[in-house]
Design goal:
By secondary structure, this protein is α+β, with helices and mostly antiparallel strands. Helix content is about 45%, strand content about 15%. It has one domain. The longest helix has 14 residues.
Length: about 70
Amino acid sequence: MAEKEKEYTVKEIAEKERKSEQTIYRWIAEGHLPCSKYPGRNGSIAISETQYQEFKSLCKVRGESR
């Protein structure tokens, strides 16, 4: 059985990036940070390890320091 991929909350990503949760929500709304939305869990948002690494890679390619 395959292991489930690590998923982060908005709060965890904010801590990793040293940004506010509001900034993370803005990145998601603007389409910069991909995520999974779970309407059945009160609309919670999860960012998988893969999604987070893709985001980090794009920032490096663009030369951005997010």
